[in-house]
Amino acid sequence: MRIVSYRDNGQDRIGVMTGADSFVAVAEVAPHLPHSLRALLGSSDGLVRLRDAVAGKAGTHSLKTAHLLPVIPDPHAIWALALNFKTHIEETGLVTSKEYPHVFVRTPLSMVGHNQPLLCPPPSVAKQFDYEGELAVIIGKGGRHIPVEKAFDHIAGFSCFNEGSVREYQSQNRNFGLGKNFERSGSVGPWLVTVDEFGDPENRRVITRLNGIERQNAPLNDMLFTVGQVIHFLSTGYTLQPGDMIAMGTPGALPPYPGENLAPIGRHKILGAVNMKPGDIVEVEITGLGVLANPVAADQDVAYRSQ
Amino acid sequence: MRIVSYRDNGQDRIGVMTGADSFVAVAEVAPHLPHSLRALLGSSDGLVRLRDAVAGKAGTHSLKTAHLLPVIPDPHAIWALALNFKTHIEETGLVTSKEYPHVFVRTPLSMVGHNQPLLCPPPSVAKQFDYEGELAVIIGKGGRHIPVEKAFDHIAGFSCFNEGSVREYQSQNRNFGLGKNFERSGSVGPWLVTVDEFGDPENRRVITRLNGIERQNAPLNDMLFTVGQVIHFLSTGYTLQPGDMIAMGTPGALPPYPGENLAPIGRHKILGAVNMKPGDIVEVEITGLGVLANPVAADQDVAYRSQ
């Protein structure tokens, strides 16, 4: 089952995909079910009831015209991993604990859904706005002190994650802070693929394309800490919640293509990485899952706006 | 106006204090108002309508028997500042940017309200569970690119914050991550004092007591970055939201008392700091605001629990 979150008349809604582009609007065929994916995952047998409710129903809505939201628009927590791919550790030259996953937190307002624009900061604020293609894990059943071998019992599914980063802000201090939390700087989608359909991500790849050109392409078994290890680690500290999302970290850059004249970028002088600019299209694909695509738009000028 | 959030029959509710212990249950006298403080702050003239609704009403509920929640139980973001007091920078010997506030994120489940127990991790998980007395700023009106001199127009009020930290986890990697996000490890309350009543926090002090003994006592004008500067900084990155909370950082420890035999604790060997243990009572006072008190309880044993 592939599940989308979308906005309809100001309300968060759930859809279940029936084809490449079409989906069933769950509120229309099963108005008794929770209307948000987080609430559905937190309800008893939520995914089973969803599957039963949409069985045999035709997909009458289109991804192209829907306003897609982040797979979970209102999670309790969005965790992200720093330096979890060996190739990314090597290219940055940074050191990270081999004992404990390196985690930080993103806020919901820093995320958008599939097809929605990412906002590139004005150049006077920052110039290094970067993609990071990642696997997203979405928690289904909450739990504490979850053993590694039980971790998959707590996963609802997976998605593609673009962990968009504003590098100048990320490196201002020890904690990444605001650099990982610019408004609409990251994305997750297009949908949640349930774990029964996707299987173990170890056998998949993550691929990032900027304007159609591959910039990252790596197997998901190159991670320093596996999905199960990270779930175990986080659940040592708190009771994981239905709808919590974990972005599993990004791999290293592909080398520049023959004849391509790319300068190394960022404070770590990474060759093959490219900053995002307004007008770009960025895609994160997880093989066997789908492609998360976002246009990049210029954020508004630096001017005081009160709500 | 002093406003509390509390739980009643599984629902989040708002109360307005009428005495040292008594409060008006807003849902009883004004059921048309939003039932959560975040929603109230986000509604047009929310605080004005609240003030009008409770004017002249008697406080029929007691703090002692209420289940108090964090001042904002469901914020979009809880920001906290690292190394924002000169005395704390000195005692740790750490370096932080003098240009950019050093911020990180806490999750809602890491927080409890006044009088609710903080959970001390089992010794097999961590032994260094520490208080950090801080001023909390609660955003009222959202905004982007807020000038320092307009910052107070965006503040709903202030509260006391105990930014409880699990030191071993905080120092595992560059980002504090899970070390600032253990379940029920921090607290905020007892209430929000509106900015019109509290004025500028620069003239107040923050005091932390463990089992009645003062361990921190510092003026709030010793901050490296002021409330206005931090609001300006965060709003460069995203549109601050009604109910967002900012914990302004903790001051240094008071020296041990004459005759007191305290060993320096933690990796920074801070003299005068004391780890929290089950059975302790920890209090954070902001002068002119109130006292946030929490008992410390042992968290459950390390055992797999599935929800």
* Major sheet details of chain A: 12 strands, mixed
Oligomer: homodimer
Instruction: Report, as a whole number of angstroms, the end-to-end distance of chain A.
Output: 39 Å
- Under CATH, the topology of the largest domain in chain A can be stated as Fumarylacetoacetate hydrolase, domain 2
Tell me the CATH superfamily of the largest domain in chain A.
Fumarylacetoacetase-like, C-terminal domain
Outline of chain A: globular
> Which percent band covers the strand fraction of chain A?
25-35%
Helix-strand makeup class of chain A: alpha+beta
Largest interface: A-B, 55 and 55 residues
Q: Helicity range of the residues of chain A? A: 10-25%
C-alpha-based Rg of chain A, rounded: 19 Å
Low-confidence stretches of chain A: none
The total count of helices of chain A amounts to 7
Number of domains of chain A: 2
Mean pLDDT of chain A: 96
* CATH architectural name of the largest domain in chain A: Alpha-Beta Complex
Q: SSE order of chain A in H/E notation?
A: EEEHHHEEEHEEEEEEEEHEHEEHEEEE
Please report the first level of CATH classification, the CATH class of the largest domain in chain A: Alpha Beta
Number of strands of chain A: 21
